[in-house]
Structures are given as C-alpha cells and as structure tokens.
Amino acid sequence: PETAKLECDNRGFNYGDAAFETLKYTSGRLLFWEEHYFRLMATMRILRMEIPMNFTMEFLEQEIIETVRASGLSDQACRIKFIVNRKSGGLYTPLTNEIDYLIKASPIESGPYMMRDQGVKMELYKDYFMPPGLLSNLKTNNRLINILGGIYAQDQEVDNCFILNTAKMVIEALNGNVFLIKGNTIKTPPLIDGCLKGIMRNQIIEIIGSDDDLDLDESSISPFELQKADEIFITNVISGIVPVSQYRKKTYSKDTSLSILAKLNSKVFA
Question: How does residue 133 score in pLDDT terms, banded at 50, 70 and 90?
C-alpha cells in the first residue's frame, strides 16, 4: 500500500471513468461475492469497458484475498474496495477500452450484522436530484450528490439524508437503499426510479419474499410517505440494516427491522 501510485492522467481521477464494488470480508470469506462479481461485470459492459479474459470469478476472488493477506488483515473483518478504471489516454473520448484495477482493504468490526442501539437521524436533501435511468443504478466514481448530501447532513447535524430523483421521489439514502415499513407492507423504490442496484437490497427483497407475513411493494416513495411510516431502514453490505430513528419530528420503531436482521444473519452466517 505504501508504494501504490496513481498516474496523473488516470481516467478515473480525471473524468470519473471508473466503477467500483464495496465488499465485506469476514470469517475468512467474501460475503455475496458471486452477486458482486456479476454486478461488476454487468457494469463494465454497460460502461463499454473491455473485460480481460482472466477476469474470472475465481481469479478476482484470489486477487482480493491476496490483497487482504498482504495488508496483514487475514484474521480481521475488512471493507474491500475494488475499483476498475479505463486505461489512460484521450480526453473525454478514450483511446482504449482496456482497463486497470485497484484493490484496497481496510479493517472494520467483524462478526454478524448488528443493529445500532441508536438509529440514524435523517433529513431530506433537496439541493440536487438524481436522474432516473440505468446509469444511476451503477456504482461509478461519479458520487457528487452523495458527497454534497453528506456535507449538508453535517451542516444540519443529522446522520444521513434521503436522496430524491428529478421527479422528487425518494430513491435512497447517502450510503444505501431505503426500505419503508407500514403495517405488514415493506416498500422500496424500484430501480427505474434511479436507486442503486444494491447487493443488500436484493438480499432483503428475498427475505421479505420468503415471509408469508410480509408484503413487498416496489414502487415510488414520496417524501410525504416518510412521515407516515412505522419504520424505515437503510441497507448496505457493510452495515447490513441501519434503522432510522428520526426524520424531522417523526420517530420510528425498529421491531420488524430487528426481525429481518435476524433472518439476514441466519441466511449469511448459518
């Protein structure tokens, strides 16, 4: 890590011409590796990046595990960031579609997913809006709305923000997908609204689908609905499920969220 260098004409650095996956390594394995791999391959195809012949699921997994080992983190839980960028050359229009890649590992808390004792306090970010469409579903290096939303959250002394699309519908939080609970119905924005195609989002949708007591509703969420919900939680692969405790003056419970978290841990760590 000390000798890693970034070229000054790196296209990810200059133009955001890059995509990434954030993964969780724990108990000696990568969680949801197959799902991450296929999402990365799909993203690279959409971005017209040339996928190397050796980019098999087994090869990339070994590259990540070797990075963890070289970082002295084999016995710890890690956050892995796998970045793919188009090779240097050209201005906006690249000279090649060949790629370079970078793998970073940093330690995090290990073990099963845990529910935060204190949920997060939220606000609505309304300065800029995410356009619906396929590019918004991808994990690319273009994250300005998330960055500016994070600064806004600091200014407002809250933990996180809801992001809106250009139709003024809630699509996600700054760092994950959003699920809203009202009675036995759990609602989450559809991909067509512009939310991230999250790995943990898919896991939670599968859990809800296998529970006869819960109904899944993939449809647009208006800001007005946030204050009518019984519970709201945020999902990502690092934290699992993060409950929302407060949005403006509305406070939320987390009973159903706890139940879903228990099922998630049974599914992942059984």
Answer: very high
The Cα–Cα gap between 233 and 246 comes to 11
**pLDDT value at position 117?**
78
For residue 75, count CB atoms less than 10 angstroms from its CB and return exposed for 0-12, middle for 13-18, buried for 19 or more: exposed
Q: What is the mean pLDDT of residues 140-155?
A: 98
pTM tops 0.70: yes
**Closest among 195, 143, 192 to 171, alpha carbons compared:** 195
> Which range is least confidently modeled, 109-118, 119-128, 142-151, 224-233?
109-118
Give the domains, in start order, of the chain with CATH numbers: 11-108 (3.30.470.10), 120-269 (3.20.10.10)
What token pair was written down for 2?
């000390």
Q: Which of 256, 260, 244 is nearest to 203 (CA)?
A: 260
**Whole-number Å distance between alpha carbons of 30 and 45:** 23
Q: H/E/C letters for each residue in 198-210? A: CHHHHHHHHHHHC
Tell me which residue of 116, 121, 131, 126 sits closest to 236, measured CA to CA: 116
* C-beta atoms surrounding 223 within 10 Å: 15
Sequence-separated (6 or more) residues with CB below 8 Å from residue 237: 22, 23, 24, 31, 32, 198, 199, 200
CA-closest candidate to residue 9, choices 108, 96, 130 = 96
Q: Which of 262, 184, 173 is nearest to 216 (CA)?
A: 184
